[in-house]
Structures are given as structure tokens and as C-alpha cells.
Design brief:
It is a multi-pass membrane protein. Keywords: Membrane, Transmembrane, Transmembrane helix. This is YhgE/Pip domain-containing protein. The chain is mostly helical. Helices cover about 75% and strands about 5% of the residues. It has helices spanning about 15-35, 65-75, 95-100, 115-120, 145-265, 265-285, 290-320, 330-360, 365-380, 385, 390-475, 480-490, 505-525, 540-570, 575-605, 605-625, 630-635, 640-650, 655-680, 685-690, and strands spanning about 1-5, 15, 50-55, 60, 65, 85-90, 105-110, 135. The protein has a four-stranded mixed sheet, with helices on both faces. Strands 1-2 form a two-stranded antiparallel sheet. Strands 4-5 form a two-stranded antiparallel sheet.
Amino acid sequence: MTLPVERSRSRRPVTWLTLIGVLLLPAVIGGILVGALYNPTDRLENITAAIVNDDKAVELDGQLVPLGRQLTGGLVKGADDQPSNIDWVISNDQDAAAGLADGTYTAVVTIPENFTAASLSTRPGETPVKATIGVQTAPDARVVDGAITSALATTATSVYGGELSSQYLKNVFLGFTTLSDQLGTAASGAHQLADGASKAASGAGDLRDGLGQLSSGASSLADGASQLAAGAGPLADGATQLASGSTALANGTRDAAAGVNKLATGADGIAAGNQQLATQINGLADQIPPGFSDDAQKLADAAPQVNTALVDAAAALQKAAADCTGTPEQCQALRDASDAANEALPQATQTVTRIGDLAGQASQLPAGIRAIADANQQLADGATGLAGGAREAASGLGTLAGGMDGIAGGATKLADGAKQFGTGAAAISSGAAQLASGATGAEDGAAQLADGVGQVATGTSSLADGLDSAVAQLPTYTDTQATTLADVVADPVSATGADNSLFGLAAVPLLAMAVLWFGGLASFVAFQAVSARALTSRRPSALVALRGFAPAALVGAVQGLLVAAVVQIASKYDWGDWALFALVCVAAGIAFAAVHQALVAVFGGAGRWIAAVIGALALGASIVSTVPPALAAVASLLPTAPAYDAMLGALSSAGGVGAGVAGFVVWAVLSLIATTLIVVRRRTTSARAAAQPA
């Protein structure tokens, strides 16, 4: 079945088969290109590549670390977010080289033998070496196969290197935390040491003061003991005199008793004897030293205090000997003096107690003697009345004589005790003097100790403050914080929104524009641009031009719709965006039909050649931004440029749909005007041409 459409360069009409072929050509080409190129990373298994692992494992902490094997496993396993992976084959150097030469392998990834050693070279004491892998592509590989293989290997090594760096940095950050904890512990210990040293310095100062007081007290004790020893001599002499006087008194009392017995025979003799006795007793009382009674009473009252002082002195001497910090000789002298004082202490306290008792009794002696003298005087005065009681007086005088004998014996013992007391007091004085000397030396040592410990406290406090400052300046991290920070530092910069697809967002509009352009070219390979009957036609030139344009425009519109359908099947765009894209494709197909009609009408067969060049230039200038500026400038003036811009704006946020549509509409209008002018020109001819047979 034929159609009323003129075939280009032939008188035969256009058939439906020709029309279907022209209609489907852009859709078939577009489908092939989109199907072959769209999302190539989803079909990576079609690429076969070999992995050669020459890496040698390294022993670390007693365990072998095969990082090359781990990288090989990571490449073979692929990424979780990547639905497809290259068909990796684990091979060796010989097989990989042979497979690369005969086309079995598209590429070969080689992991060198020092990969693990280089990866672990960041350890302390090692020389850092960067780990590398080799990527080799087959000479007959597809255009992008090598780039895909290289990109996957590079990404894998980059991620693997980032993990190594992240682990290394994590250990460094956690090392900061460990160091901070250890320095904090050291700072706490230093603070405790400084506090202890301060307390020790204070204690050493107290020890120095206590030793000073001990030295002063020991000196006072030595002085007091010397005074006691000095006073014990006169006390012994007085007690001796008391004993002698008491003996004489006892003898006189006995004589008085004998006289009383004689007076018993006569009152006159008794009176004379009593007077004589009273005189003798008064004389005896006069022989007692003045203040004897008070001194004896004071001595009796001082006995408990002396005993207390002796006990305290012995205890102080013993404590000083136990706490001695002087020289060994001084300490030994203190211990010897303490032992001697403790041995003499019981006897000394007993003697002092006896002396006190005797002194208390002796204090009553002068009053008793005076009372006897007064009694004898009264007897002398009342001798007449005493005659009857003379015998009783004689008996009383006998008793008095016995008491005086006791007083004499007690005074003798008092004299002996006073002498012993003097000896003990002298020993105490000597020991106290040694104690004072030793305490003075210990006081000097304690002062030096206090100064030294104070310096230790100051230095330790400074150390603690310095450690606190170091702890405050050191950062600390938890495991989670260290992991996060290490990941960021290992890969500090990342790009978001970047499209790493080899078939990007701009590829679909580019392919759609290209296939529609070449579809329009195909239309005027089959269709006649200007009717061969234009010269004889009665229609206006514009209608003649539109008559040639109409079938191509209809084909272009259907081609645009078919191309948009193929794109939607492959890409699955949002229906709103696709609808706008489909309208642009339909409009572009119609506009391209007008442009191709004008090119063929103006230039004839060369117009098709020019159209092919325009299509190639449009593709070349839109694939990569590194195109030469001159070519880019020329491409921006072509009718394909606004069509591409409008299609891209319909599928993305680039915008410019209206401007693009307006651009290729202007091209379509200009093309129709040019075609009309060609029709006008062809409708004029010379007489010779008209006379020639058709």
C-alpha cells in the first residue's frame, strides 16, 4: 500500500513499510543506546577481571596479618550498596598475563608482595611506606572498561586505606585518653604525697617544738634536782643534830625521872629538880634551829610533789630515749640514764615518802618540847602540889625518854634517807642534763627534717600542679568518640550530591536529542524536501513547502513520543517530569523535521551531509566539558542546542525549558521560511528549460 508522499530521488511513492522504518529508526537507535549505556554499574558482572595477590603476610604480635588477602576478599565480595560487582577471578602472574593477552580478562589487579608490610609501616619504629596496587587493562577492552576497573580498585584501596588510617588514629586518640587517665592518677598521687609531706613537715615542726620543750624541761629538772641534792645535805645535818639532841633529851629525861623519884621523898627537892629540869628542857628547845618546825612541815608537804616530779621525770626521760633522733651515742646515753632512773625510782619515792612522814612528826617536836618545859615549869612552880604526883611524873618522864629515843632513831633514819635522797637527786640532775643535751641535738635534727620535708612538700605540690595542667590540656575520648573522630580525620573531606554514574542525568536528554536529530535526517532521506511538481502546482509556495513538511513533521512528532516512551521504560522518571519531557521531544521532532527539510531544500544532497556533521558536533560538544571553546561556541548556535537544553530542563532542576522550546521553534520557523523561498525560486524557470521535454 502506497502513501501520497513523494520519495526522495525517485518517482516511486512512499510505502507504509518505509514510513514505519523511518518512524521506528530513532526509537530503535535510542533504545539500543539507552539499553546499552544506562546504569552500566548494574551490570558489572559482564566484566571479567583477574586479581593477583603476591602479598606476603606480616607477623604482628604473634599473629600473621594478610592484608592483601583481606583486600582481595573485599574486592571479590563487593559493596553492600552496589547491586553488581565485577566477575573477579583470583589468579597468578602467568595466568593473568595470558588471560589479558587473549582477551579472557578485561583487566588485572595486582597486589604487590610488600602490600601488608607497607600498610603496617605506620607502627612505631617503622619507616612509613605507602601501599600501592597495580591495575592493567587489556588492549582490546571496551572504552570505559578500564576506567570502571580502575575506579573500583582505587575506591576499594581508598576505603581500605581509610580504615587503616581510622584504626591507627583511633588508637592514637584512645592513647591520649589512657595517658590522661595515667597522668590524672599520678597527679592524684602527687597531691596525696604533697599533703602527706605537708603533714610530715608540720609534724617535724611539732617534734622540733616538743624537743625544745623537752630540753627546757630537762634543764629545769636538772636544776631542781641539783637544788634538791643541795638541800638534802643540810636536811641530813639537821636530822643528825636532831638525833643527837633527842638522845641527850632522852638521857636528861631519864635523869629527870630519877630526880622526880628522889623528889618523891621530899617536896623541896622536887621543886628544885623540876625547876632545873624545866631549865634544861627550855635549853634543849633553844638548841632546836629556828624555823625547824616549818621546814619539817614543808618537807613533809613537798614529799608527794617530789615523788610526782620523779615519776614524770623518769617517764619523760624514757620517752626521750624512745623517740631519740640524735646520734647513736646520745640515744644510748639517754637509754642508760632512763634505765638508771627507772631502777632508782622505787627506792627514791619510798625514801621521799618516809622522809615526809618523819618530817611531819619532827614538825611537832619543838611544840612538844616547849610543852614539856612549860609542864616542868609548872611543876617547879607547883612543886608543893606535885609531891603526891611525883611518881606519876617520873613515870611520864620515863615514857617521854622512850619517845625521845624513838625520835632520835627516826632522826637518824631521816639523816640516812636525806643522804640517799641527795645521791638520787644528783643522779637525776646528771641524767636530766644529759637528756637536755640530747633533746637540744634532736631539736636541731628535727628542724633540719622539717625544712627538708617542707621542700619535698613544695616540690611535690608543684609536680601535682604540673600534672593537673597536663591532664587539663590532654583530650580524652570514649571508644565511640575516638572511632567517630578517627573516621572523620582519616577522610576529612567528602562530596555529597556528586553523580559517579558513567551514564549521568544529562545523558538521556543528549541521546534523545541525537536520535531525534538523526531521525529527522532519516525522514528526508526517504521523503522529498520540495515537491517535484512545485513548478506546475497551482498552490501557493508556502503551501507547497508545508505539503513537503507535513509528513516529516508528523513522523517527527511520533518519533519524539516513541523516544520518550523508550526513555521512560529504561529510566522510570516521575510522570509529571516525563510528560513535560515527552512534549518537548514531540516539539523537537517537529522542529528538526523543518530544519532538515530546509537543509536538503537549500543544499540538496550536501544538506544531509551537513545534517550529519551537525549531529556529530552536537554529540561531541555535549559529552565532556573539555571540548575546545571554538567547537563549544559553534555547537551553542546549532538548532540541537535549544532542544537539548529544553529536554535537560524537563528532567532536572536546570530550568530553561521555555527558552529552549522558543529557540528550536525559531529555528523551525526560519527553516520553513527558507524552504518556502527555495520553492519560490524553483517555480521560476527559463524558456529553454520550459521547452525541454519533461
